[in-house]
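Changelog-adjacent note: as of this version, every example in the card shows the full chain rather than a window. The one below runs 525 residues end to end.
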Amino acid sequence: MSSSPTGGGHLTDDERLLAELGYKQELERSWGGFTNFAISFSIISILSGCFTTYYVAWDYGGPIAISIGWPLIWLFTMVIALCMAEIVSAYPTAGGLYYWSSKLGGPGWGWFTGWFNLVGVIAIVAGVDYGCATFTSATIGLFDSSWTGGLTNIFYIFVAILAIHTLVNLFPAHILSWWNNISAYWHLIGAAVVVLVLAFDLNTPHQSLSFVFTHTVNNSGFAHHYFWFYILPLGFLMTQYTITGYDASAHLSEETSGAAKAAAQGLWRSVFYAGVTGYILLLAFTFAAHNVGFVNGASTFHGASNAYGAGSVISIFASSLGLTAFKLVMVISAVGQFFCGGAGMTSASRMMFAFSRDRAVPGHQLWSKVAPNKAPRNASLAVAVISLLITAPALKGNHVGVPVAFFAVVSVTTIGLYVAYTIPVYLRWRMGDEFKAGPWTLGDRYKWMCPLAFGEVIVVSIYFMLPTAPAGWPGNSLFDWSLVNYAPILLVAVIGFAGIWWMASAKNWFKGPIRTVDLPAEAGD
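Full-length structure tokens:
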């Protein structure tokens, strides 16, 4: 009998399936189904996205972009998640999406899916950690009146948070499972505490149902006649960005027991529960937004002007809560964002490892190495350095105070991930009934769910590459490079690099996933 790919003579069901897919068991498989769910739920992180990008929905649409926009976009993301769950059940590998595309469509599809996915998961780390730094800076200011904040100090905090998350991910999977399990409970309990505080500890009356479900706001700078077809769709970025990162359930499938079912369930359940709990949280924010003038940055509250920026959820807390409750909510959110960034680094490092394992990343020999404790250390370090570089423009502000760099990183995350999500979904739909499903399947429902999924992504990807301020449009008389949404520039640069490399060289040698093991014959065969 041939030797086991894991070094022993007997294969578990997970190891045998992984060997059939072409890989030996290199990572530590110590996660259960709850932990697989927990990492995706943590990366979606309603304590991160709902807090840090609330201003996007408020400024580009107002309450209706939240009360109506969230459930609308969430339904589309549920369809996408269910389609992805069916595919991960058939192919539970760390490479996840690019592996699926390679098997369903060929090496070229896998190559570009992998690059979109890699860009997206790294941008998640950058965006979440920078958002966490912003909230941490604001929280420090509540406890220390001498704290000045500012872009430089926020960036220093960002670097420190990124370093901690890199360090945490140098540990093996069973250590990381504690991190993600605690994170899931923190998100559930913490969100409940925030909702209760906003429901019962306000020092101002709640807004009306009419305000929450019909009121509009336009702080974009664009003329209001653009509202319905340009401004409001930009506000949907909050929802689309927040509900991302659930491909982590796929990337961590090689570390999950019973992955063919557990990874599929972890993926779609994380989207479902994040959608429900996130909506409750956002409604609590919006009902508490009584001082609309202060939230819009156009008035003062108790003699103080709004230093948090127009539309910021922090301005709602500042004008609606007492100081103790304000501090409590900010601490809960900042800690949740900290957990989220660590989970994002875990997912991104596994994607970097897997894509490098198939030689698709420059320096793949380094990034595909696994440390003696079975952690992809080098891949984690690479993700950290790239995250730092793409966030560096945040050090430079602009005269109108628009956080263009953060908006761009959020857009890159959303576009990169959702394009990567829907390429294999499209390929699975194209394959039709020839697709060999795993134990978790959609049945015939894929026939309408798959085209709906990739159709929605095409539309939102176009919107999220558009300028977010009038002066960000080339040709505008007030054009300012500091207001340009550089998301399309970064995406074109990376995908252009991948495309040139593909045409010049990779198409001749990249044949998709490389088998690292031959399935051993059972005794007696």
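Structural remarks: The beta strands are 60-61, 217-218, 300-301, 304-305.
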